[in-house]
């Protein structure tokens, strides 16, 4: 009976496999003494003033449903945050929805805009969550491999892909600073891409979740250039070390936001009120909470980048987020999953296989440096020993 019922479930589920990232992280966790540089989560605690706001919310019995699109106060705070930080202007009453993290925001957006047969353009390597959500909507991911261009999408490749797929293209997704590469885009690069996109009647999904973690110039959202096409996704998880509070948000023109609100409302009703009260404190009185975290991440980036380069790994120096995408040297195991397993068991350092991030990612590994400097120093020491051991083995074989 159970088997027959499983066969009656949504057909698209057969196209989806459990997350490679979570699966490998769990596998590596079973290795004694492992140092995990796998999951993309800040190792900082939520700021004290934000935690206190959450406690006050509980003490004041704020345990009832919030409005579906979020409390008015939080939406106002988000609106002010986006204006001050990135020069984006969204009406708090009609153009902002508070979601259960950026994950729900991505699901809500893709579920709302996609019909069977639609196509979604994705520059790869890319955070893989967009792919199953697209498939569940009976739409098709179209990958644009950026690995030959420093992991930056060129206007030429974008124009070519749009021409190849025509009217079937419903949306293009931009996630920068990028998970997994740490690459972000300069203003001139964004403007060049926007000039291509404004000629096409498609949605531009801007996943800006790492916007507060840029090393150098401030983040520039594609929405600055394409306000009528853009759907912005962001949240408190990375900027304020609030992953477990599950606060994200969507911003879009009012007519689009109204439609997005339908899926959002019938998916989760509303985000937890206590978490929203904590996020209000974060965006209102902790607007620069991410600054000290960013400074520490930059120190770690510089250390890991230098160490991995010395160990023979070719890396694009990250300009944002907290990931290093390192190319596996030619004399080592080239399959990224096999290499990551070998590294985990022999060096007791866990990283994520690059093949998990789509075309252009195979042959690479992703290192999360959202870990203490002490852990990173020991991990780099272990990787150096692993590399040296491989060299000695090759020398003996020759």
TrEMBL record:
<dbReference type="GO" id="GO:0006520">
    <property type="term" value="P:amino acid metabolic process"/>
</dbReference>
<keyword id="KW-0663">Pyridoxal phosphate</keyword>
<dbReference type="InterPro" id="IPR004839">
    <property type="entry name" value="Aminotransferase_I/II_large"/>
</dbReference>
<protein>
    <recommendedName>
        <fullName>Aminotransferase</fullName>
        <ecNumber>2.6.1.-</ecNumber>
    </recommendedName>
</protein>
<dbReference type="GO" id="GO:0008483">
    <property type="term" value="F:transaminase activity"/>
</dbReference>
<keyword id="KW-0808">Transferase</keyword>
<dbReference type="InterPro" id="IPR015422">
    <property type="entry name" value="PyrdxlP-dep_Trfase_small"/>
</dbReference>
<dbReference type="InterPro" id="IPR015424">
    <property type="entry name" value="PyrdxlP-dep_Trfase"/>
</dbReference>
<comment type="similarity">
    <text>Belongs to the class-I pyridoxal-phosphate-dependent aminotransferase family.</text>
</comment>
<dbReference type="Pfam" id="PF00155">
    <property type="entry name" value="Aminotran_1_2"/>
</dbReference>
<dbReference type="InterPro" id="IPR004838">
    <property type="entry name" value="NHTrfase_class1_PyrdxlP-BS"/>
</dbReference>
<keyword id="KW-0032">Aminotransferase</keyword>
<feature type="domain" description="Aminotransferase class I/classII large">
    <location>
        <begin position="34"/>
        <end position="383"/>
    </location>
</feature>
<dbReference type="InterPro" id="IPR015421">
    <property type="entry name" value="PyrdxlP-dep_Trfase_major"/>
</dbReference>
<dbReference type="InterPro" id="IPR050596">
    <property type="entry name" value="AspAT/PAT-like"/>
</dbReference>
<dbReference type="GO" id="GO:0030170">
    <property type="term" value="F:pyridoxal phosphate binding"/>
</dbReference>
């Amino acid at each position: 009976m159970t088997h027959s019922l499983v066969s009656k479930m949504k057909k698209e589920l057969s196209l989806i496999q459990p997350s490679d990232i979570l699966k490998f992280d769990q596998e590596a966790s079973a290795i004694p003494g492992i140092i995990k540089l796998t999951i993309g989560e800040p190792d900082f605690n939520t700021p004290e003033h934000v935690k206190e706001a959450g406690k006050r919310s509980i003490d004041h019995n704020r345990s009832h449903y919030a409005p579906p699109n979020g409390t008015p106060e939080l939406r106002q705070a988000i609106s002010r945050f986006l204006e001050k930080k990135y020069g984006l202007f969204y009406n708090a009453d009609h153009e902002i929805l508070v979601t259960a993290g950026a994950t729900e925001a991505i699901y809500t957006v893709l579920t709302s805009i996609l019909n069977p047969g639609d196509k979604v353009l994705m520059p790869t390597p890319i955070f893989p969550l967009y792919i199953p959500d697209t498939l569940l909507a009976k739409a098709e991911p179209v990958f644009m491999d950026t690995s030959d261009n420093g992991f930056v999408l060129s206007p030429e490749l974008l124009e070519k892909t749009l021409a190849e797929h025509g009217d079937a293209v419903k949306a293009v997704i931009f996630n920068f600073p990028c998970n997994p590469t740490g690459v972000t885009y300069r203003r001139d690069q964004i403007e060049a891409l926007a000039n291509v996109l404004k000629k096409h009647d498609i949605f531009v999904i801007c996943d800006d979740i790492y916007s507060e973690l840029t090393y150098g110039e401030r983040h520039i959202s594609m929405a600055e250039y394409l306000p009528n096409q853009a759907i912005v996704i962001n949240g408190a998880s990375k900027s304020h070390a609030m992953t477990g509070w599950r606060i994200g948000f969507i911003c879009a023109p009012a007519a689009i936001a109204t439609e997005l609100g339908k899926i959002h409302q019938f998916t989760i009703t509303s985000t937890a009120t206590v978490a929203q009260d904590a996020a209000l404190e974060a965006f209102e009185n902790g607007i620069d909470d991410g600054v000290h975290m960013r400074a520490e991440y930059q120190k770690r980036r510089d250390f890991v980048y230098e160490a991995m380069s010395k160990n023979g790994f070719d890396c694009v120096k990250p300009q944002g987020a907290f990931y290093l995408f390192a190319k596996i040297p030619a004399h080592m195991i080239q399959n990224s999953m096999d290499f990551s397993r070998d590294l985990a068991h022999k060096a007791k350092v866990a990283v994520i296989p690059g093949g998990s991030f789509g075309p252009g990612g195979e042959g690479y590994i992703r290192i999360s440096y959202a870990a203490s400097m002490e852990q990173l120093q020991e991990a780099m020491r272990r990787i150096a020993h692993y590399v040296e051991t491989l060299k000695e083995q090759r020398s003996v074989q020759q």
